[in-house]
Amino acid sequence: MKKSIILMLLMVPCILFAQKPSKKGTIQLKNELDSVSYALGLSLGNSLKQNNLSNVNTDLLVTGIRQMISQDAKPLFDESAANDIIRAYLTKTFAAENAAYLKESKKFLEENSKKEGVVTLPSGLQYMVLKEGTGEKPLETDYVTTHYTGMTTDGKVFDSSVERGEPVTFPLNGVIRGWTEALQLMKVGSKWRIFIPPDMAYGENPPPNSGIKPNQVLIFDVELISVQKNETPAEEEQSPNQ
Description:
It contains six helices and seven strands, in the order ααααββββαβαββ. Strands 1, 2, 3, 4, 5, 6 and 7 form a seven-stranded antiparallel beta sheet that branches.
């Protein structure tokens, strides 16, 4: 994430704002380069907004870009110093965000542990039995077939085999720790709601474009359909949270 913003900031001066800005509401794109310039502006603005940098001083941003393009004045920082400043600020910003998300997650788990039917394990993993099965329990080395729906704490679904209409088979020791621990406690035929703490999910590094925030609790409704003992399926499927 940080790297992409830095690259964007370094690439934009090549073209962005090469033309004088038009008055508000009178943007004129006269040629292909104008369109590219404006599109780069939109892309940069969106990147800044998505990464909580929409409060940057846009006047100084434009000044820096123009100085790099026109070379009519010596910049205050060379490229190396500029990169260091950006990295230091982003590191501090993301650290603060990650700490805030972790605080939210701890609060959620603390409140959730008080709800009826929620069991909290020593690891911090929480679960609620929605349906109790009668089959065998898998071992960590087994393959399991499941149906699942993954949600964030606000109820937003980020992945679901149920929606795709096809269960998934995967090695139980090849997924996030929360799944590995929880499913070993489930019997075939069971359906549980699992509340996974950040350190048993993705921590500060969620998958790109997943909709999952750093240090976020993940909630999964999981149905354990079957267990394959010490066997490798003929065609191993993509696990839900590798």
